[in-house]
């Protein structure tokens, strides 16, 4: 495997920091993200508060670090649901009867034509707002895209020369599926999953910004953006730094995902 370039190495470093923030946020920010201090409200960035404070005197840096668990965690969970459903539908379409493939593919194509965020908003409107609803909504909204990728890949692998040779040598359909079709279909998905997590974090934050995801005082990045927009003219740091956290995380996962896709191509 080729060594990582500068951009990929930087992206891997950012992702590593995010993982630390998710698993052990106290290592990076030992404070309490929910502890209020009214006398320290709206403090600009300084040595005491590197990213300033919000209207309740809570450190923006501390809340961003602890909010990684909510934003990234919801993004990973939503991606897991989308990938899981996509794999099931993709394999059924790719290996199932032609009538089933045709019917499911038509449904998937219609759903895929709709913007993901619009679909997520529709699902949230049906099942109600909240973090759990955000996970389900984004997972369901992203499933058609993964299903299309899995279907295309599984059909390519199933019709490949090495699978045909294995069947010619007497390998059973079940054995050929386990040895060749399954691993060669799922392995390339790793890069797409990495890209998908970054996109899911953006959509999770968008739902929270619209008031349909995590609610204050939860230190979730989209919720922090929603709270800070009211004070944008006087306390710009309340909006700028959570927004940068979302952007940098999404870019890092995108760069890393593209690097992985080149390595698995």
Would you kindly provide a written description of the structure presented here, covering whatever features stand out?
With 265 residues, the chain is mostly helical. Helix content is 73%, strand content 0%. The protein contains eleven helices and no strands. It has helices spanning 6-23, 25-28, 60-95, 98-113, 116-127, 131-158, 161-168, 173-186, 189-209, 221-228, 237-264. Helix 3 runs antiparallel to helix 4 (98-113), helix 4 crosses helix 6 (131-158) and helix 6 (131-158) runs antiparallel to helix 9. The radius of gyration is 22 Å and the shape is elongated. The model has no long low-confidence stretch (mean pLDDT 89). It is a multi-pass membrane protein. Residues 68-257 form the ABC transmembrane type-1 domain. InterPro entries: BP-dependent_transpt_permease, MetI-like, MetI-like_sf. It comes from Candidatus Microbacterium stercoravium. One of its GO terms (cellular component) is plasma membrane.
Top keywords for this entry?
ABC transporter permease, 73% helix, transmembrane, 265 residues
Quick take:
The protein has 265 residues and is mainly alpha-helical. It has helices spanning 6-23, 25-28, 60-95, 98-113, 116-127, 131-158, 161-168, 173-186, 189-209, 221-228, 237-264.
């Amino acid at each position: 495997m080729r060594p990582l370039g500068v951009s990929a190495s930087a992206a891997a470093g950012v992702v590593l920091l995010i993982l630390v923030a998710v698993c052990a946020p106290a290592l990076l920010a030992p404070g309490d993200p929910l502890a209020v201090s009214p006398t320290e409200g709206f403090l600009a960035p300084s040595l005491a508060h590197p990213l300033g404070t919000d209207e309740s005197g809570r450190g923006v840096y501390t809340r961003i670090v602890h909010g990684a668990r909510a934003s990234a965690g919801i993004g990973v969970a939503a991606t897991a649901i989308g990938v899981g459903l996509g794999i099931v539908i993709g394999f059924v379409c790719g290996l199932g009867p032609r009538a089933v493939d045709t019917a499911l593919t038509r449904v998937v194509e219609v759903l895929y034509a709709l913007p993901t965020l619009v679909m997520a908003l529709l699902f949230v409107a049906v099942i109600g707002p909240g973090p759990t609803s955000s996970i389900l909504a984004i997972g369901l909204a992203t499933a058609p895209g993964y299903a299309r990728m899995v279907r295309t890949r599984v059909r390519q692998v199933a019709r490949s020369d090495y699978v045909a040779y294995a069947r010619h040598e007497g390998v059973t359909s079940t054995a050929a599926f386990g040895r060749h079709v399954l691993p060669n279909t799922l392995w390339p998905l790793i890069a797409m999953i990495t890209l998908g997590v970054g996109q899911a974090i953006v959509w999770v934050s968008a739902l929270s910004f619209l008031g349909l995801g995590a609610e204050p005082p939860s230190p979730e990045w989209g919720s922090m953006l929603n709270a800070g927009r009211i004070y944008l003219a006087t306390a710009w740091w309340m909006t700028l730094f959570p927004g940068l956290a979302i952007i940098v995380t999404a870019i890092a996962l995108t760069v890393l995902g593209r690097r992985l896709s080149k390595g698995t191509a």
